[in-house]
Amino acid sequence: MTAETTGEAAGRTRRRGAGRTRAPINQLPWRQFSNPHPKLRLISDDEVERLHQGSVRILEEVGVRFFLPEALDLLETAGAIVDRADSRARIGRDIVEEAIRLAPARVTLSSRNPRHTVSLGGDEFVCTNVLGPPFSTNLDRGRRSGTLADYAELMKLAQFFNVVHMIGGSPVEPMDVEVPVRHLEAALVMLEVSDKVPYTFCHSVQRIHDTLDMIAMARGLTREQLRDTPSTYAIINTNSPLQYDTSMAAGVIEMARHGQPILITPFSLAGASMPVTLAGAIALSNAEFLAGLVLAELARPGAPVLTGAKTTNVDMRTGSPAFGGPEFQKSTIIGGQLARRYGVPYRCSNFCTSNAADAEAVYQAEGAIWSAVMSGCNLLMHAVGWIEGGLCASYEKFVLDVEMVQMMAVMLEPVEVSEATLAFEEVAMVGPGGHYFSTPLTLDTYKTAFYQPLISSTRNYGAWVEDGARDATHRANAIWKQALEDYETPPMPAERLEAASSWRNGRQKAARRSISGWAGRARWASHNGWRLTWRSHRGGRAP
Amino acid sequence: MTAETTGEAAGRTRRRGAGRTRAPINQLPWRQFSNPHPKLRLISDDEVERLHQGSVRILEEVGVRFFLPEALDLLETAGAIVDRADSRARIGRDIVEEAIRLAPARVTLSSRNPRHTVSLGGDEFVCTNVLGPPFSTNLDRGRRSGTLADYAELMKLAQFFNVVHMIGGSPVEPMDVEVPVRHLEAALVMLEVSDKVPYTFCHSVQRIHDTLDMIAMARGLTREQLRDTPSTYAIINTNSPLQYDTSMAAGVIEMARHGQPILITPFSLAGASMPVTLAGAIALSNAEFLAGLVLAELARPGAPVLTGAKTTNVDMRTGSPAFGGPEFQKSTIIGGQLARRYGVPYRCSNFCTSNAADAEAVYQAEGAIWSAVMSGCNLLMHAVGWIEGGLCASYEKFVLDVEMVQMMAVMLEPVEVSEATLAFEEVAMVGPGGHYFSTPLTLDTYKTAFYQPLISSTRNYGAWVEDGARDATHRANAIWKQALEDYETPPMPAERLEAASSWRNGRQKAARRSISGWAGRARWASHNGWRLTWRSHRGGRAP
């Protein structure tokens, strides 16, 4: 790559290799974002209360199925009415209100690199990369099934770009690694490549333990020390409507007991898994969140839990989720009102349905980012890289999203209105008909006064055509390539990496033994096949 | 065009021509939009007041240049301190506060088609097409200098799409028509092709009179009746900093006297025509607006005036306006706070800098639309079709913008939280583990429950590839073509069209006589050349 192909991220240039000069990528410096402005309200406080009461009524009168007996035990002990034959627990409002009272309003996640410690709650606003797509795509090699190599590349981009505050989990599923050992490989690469707050793979209790063990090793902590130091998190989806399967319920309990925050996000589709009305879908989805919150607070009082809204509607023509549409934006904003009612941090998502990193992907994403921020979002999952309703990670969309998130972060910065910034003396000096190109204030501050875009350009049409008339997606292509070149592995003491690595080897052998027989292989193949079939309908377990 | 090429705007199909079937374009029905939700505040009320006082201080101590003696006369009579040698008027705060008091909070613009009457003020939210680019582009024929034929095509699109509530003026400049007669041709085509509220061409007093005459004829009104019936509007830009040239000042006075609303929009570039600080740029730009407001209210007390914010920063690398960036979004939102302080309707803009209808154009546009709506925007100018910092109208961007505006309109619709929409009975009936595809509520409402997109699609990757893997911009291409096919000329009594047309002919002759000599030709050529040169730098008079 030459200076010509690195886009317009101008500024200083530096020498690389045999005399080549190139502009470095001009991104915002690392900092946690903040949204100190009033949050948007789409419904009244009375209506928020009505939604809450609707959710409570569902929990009391309809109840929630938990397929994990331990979950039913905890709930029964707390006073819920449990029907073992149907695995159903009807949860009284007193139990719910107590859980809301116990849940902390804020959680700080520390990281191996203290600079990358983040805080979730209040006005804080934090972003992650896309999580879980089985495919990845870019303009160079097209769309393909996820590999561990692509996983590592995208993880490097997540480390490189400062707007990715935390690792969102697998930026692409390494489908070339067998399922029983996939989380081990994925965790090791994540910890090697990034020093940002890592994600805990949580599809089973074993995977949670494996990931927490490796995270503790990379941090140089014992598992007990890790418990007292929130350092990772996991996402639990419900099996809507009103079900927690064994691994989901176990995930809630395990993460709570290990002191790490849980994001409970019902995958809520109005007209499919939820009522067709937005209020009905939000109330039901919120009931599912509250059930998980109760379970977490019963497992460990004071367990940090985030509420995640991702209610959207089903597209009645295709049966697929209409991610990124106006119903999704509305439910995102109302979800924020509920989160403030409960005093728990709020997770949102940067969703879109487009099959390419095109205009559709971007207007849906920019709308998702705005609705999230207006809602008071604390954690934006999938902030960068998501396309195809979550089935694919796009390298170019990753960079486009970075630009959109950066713009939002700058938009949220306070505007100073003071004698100095009103600059009356300059206005009087320049007077009518002059200009401000060379006034003292301009000369002093012009280099940093305004946002310096990553992709956007104000070049005129002629200059743009001369440079190849590359659209924003093609300019983004050059940027991720440069980012991969510029990426630097964060330091980690050799003995910690060694510990995590040999531990992984041991666990791998054990896991492989369990799939060495015919039955194990068949189980693996069927599990994997099920995942793909399910996802090909774009329904099912959400990332 | 066949059913295969019309995209996925599915629904009913209808027969056209020789047995072809095609889905009609599935757009939102006509209605004026409303934003009943709380508006965003980026600064405190105290800071708003500080900005206002900053503007007042500029008006009192620095003053504004008006090159039109009549404007200085009006201001002097009102008590301003006028320096004739410098054409400068220093305007006291009492004069300013009186003008603010006189300006109406709302204006209703009636149209030839009563259905297309719109109201500007309060929670109302109204959109126009792009105004004034000298070039147009689409995927079929590329970018070219504006022609009257392209003007008519884009005007038809403005009439066809329901989210365009008012005509924004020339959707492309008909550069193939000589300047002295261009407004006559443009006005006639506008009135023939559209029955939405028309724009008044206002670069000179003569053009204002010509356009108002033709609008009155098309309405079957006298000019006196038109004065009592606000039916059109014009945009006045200042010559920043702190100058109103002759035609701008005359435009304010004429429009006020003729009872038609004026949008006063300083073209405010922080670091170029304005101080480099956002507060300084907004205070100065607001001072220019207030000066125009004073002039309008002196010309005719109670004249309807809209305040228009389009403060953005200059890109210090290219010297061009950084339309659509975060500084622009901030100033848009703060502009709304000032507009509410003054109780006048608020105009915003859907700006972007991109040279194509690509991802950049769209993230800037979606951000512009969100910041406008969050600011309490009453009139979104350039809502559809703008690219290249206003130098070019894109047919595909037009359609992409329609989709974005539609989504916003649906997002703003109230969410009903009631017994009926909470749908407890359905939740109880479906219970855990069921689905809502075939519940009574879903079956009753699924056809209309959710937004039906124009371009967005939830089709899976395989189906999308089979259909040609067309990105959103290419799907937008098919949609504008279909819109032009489906367009129907709105009815107008033959005698009114005849009156406007023969009047245009007479005026044309007179105007041509004035440019028939050598001097006239040279004047025309130099005027036109100046426009193009100026615009090629992307600065200068803003559309």
Structure description:
- 2 copies of one chain form a homodimer.
- Chain A has 543 residues and is α/β, with parallel strands linked by helices.
- Helix content of chain A is 47%, strand content 13%.
- Chain A is built from 19 helices and 21 strands.
- Chain A has a 7-stranded mixed sheet with strand order 3-9-19-18-16-14-12. In chain A, strands 5-6-4-13 form a 4-stranded mixed sheet. A 4-stranded mixed sheet of chain A has the order 11-10-21-20.
- In chain A, helix 1 crosses helix 9 (278-299) and helix 5 (179-193) runs parallel beside helix 6.
- The radius of gyration of chain A is 24 Å and the shape is globular.
- At the A-B interface, helix 1, helix 9, helix 10, helix 11 and helix 12 of A face helix 1, helix 9, helix 10, helix 11 and helix 12 of B.
Short description:
The structure is a homodimer of 543-residue chains. Chain A is an alpha/beta fold and 543 residues long.
Q: Which ranges of chain A are low-confidence, i.e. pLDDT below 50, for 5 or more consecutive residues?
A: 1-19, 518-543
Mean pLDDT of chain A: 91
Strand neighbour order, sheet with most strands of chain A: 3-9-19-18-16-14-12
Strand elements of chain A, count = 21
Protein chains sharing the most extensive interface? A-B, 132 and 132 residues
Number of DSSP helical runs of chain A: 19
Percent in strands of chain A: 5-15%
State the shape of chain A. globular
Our measurement of the CA-to-CA distance between the termini of chain A, rounded to an integer number of angstroms, reads 34 Å
Oligomer: homodimer
Structural class of chain A: alpha/beta
- Main beta sheet of chain A: strand number and arrangement? 7 strands, mixed
| Helical proportion of chain A, percent range | 40-55%
Overall radius of gyration of chain A: 24 Å
